[in-house]
């Protein structure tokens, strides 16, 4: 299968992508992750104003065949959630790196950015998971 791997963003080993703009991180799940889940029917996102630690549970994604967790890629405060996903959760399938974004975080520990992985490392990780 051929997946999209934008090279101008960072990734996590739990299949989230992170786009950084100053101290704000936009987060979603990767093309690979949405393919693995299948047709997404519901997305549960955190409340604006919540402060969550890196690697904590930030929400859930339900598909016709599984429930997946949204894992915080960085510590910080939730400053925006994608309201469109309440009515149109399938945006995660059709546009995982665009209209299907999930949360925006005001990062509290900039040093954690160094722990995100590059597109090359993420591609290798996906390849190893498929074997």
Give a written overview of the molecule.
It is a single chain. This protein has 131 residues and is α+β, with helices and mostly antiparallel strands. The chain has one domain (12-108): RNA polymerase II/Efflux pump adaptor protein, barrel-sandwich hybrid domain (OB fold (Dihydrolipoamide Acetyltransferase, E2P), Beta Barrel), CATH 2.40.50.100. The protein has helices at 31-37, 84-87, 91-94, 119-130, and strands at 10-11, 16-21, 24-29, 40-44, 51-52, 57-63, 67-71, 76-81, 103-107. The strands form 2 sheets. The chain has a 6-stranded antiparallel beta sheet. The protein has a 3-stranded antiparallel beta sheet with strand order 4-6-7. A hairpin with a 3-residue loop joins strand 6 (57-63) and strand 7 (67-71). The radius of gyration is 14 Å and the shape is globular. The two termini are 12 Å apart. The model has no long low-confidence stretch (mean pLDDT 96).
Provide tags for this entry:
4 helices, OB fold (Dihydrolipoamide Acetyltransferase, E2P), globular, six-stranded antiparallel beta sheet, three-stranded antiparallel beta sheet, about 130 residues, about 20% helix, alpha+beta
Topology at a glance:
Layout: E1 10-11, E2 16-21, E3 24-29, H1 31-37, E4 40-44, E5 51-52, E6 57-63, E7 67-71, E8 76-81, H2 84-87, H3 91-94, E9 103-107, H4 119-130
Antiparallel strand pairs: 1-2, 2-3, 3-9, 4-6, 5-8, 6-7, 8-9
The H/E string reads EEEHEEEEEHHEH
Annotated CATH homologous superfamily = RNA polymerase II/Efflux pump adaptor protein, barrel-sandwich hybrid domain
* Number of spatially distinct domains: 1
Total DSSP E strands? 9
What is the number of helices? 4
Strand order of the largest sheet: 1-2-3-9-8-5
CATH architecture, by name, is Beta Barrel
Q: Under the CATH scheme, which class?
A: Mainly Beta
Mean pLDDT rating: 96
Helix content: 10-25%
Q: What about the largest sheet?
A: 6 strands, antiparallel
Please mark out the parts with pLDDT under 50 across 5 or more consecutive residues, or reply none: none
Q: Measured on Cα atoms, how large is the radius of gyration?
A: 14 Å
Global geometry:
globular
How far apart are the first and last residues' alpha carbons, in Å?
12 Å
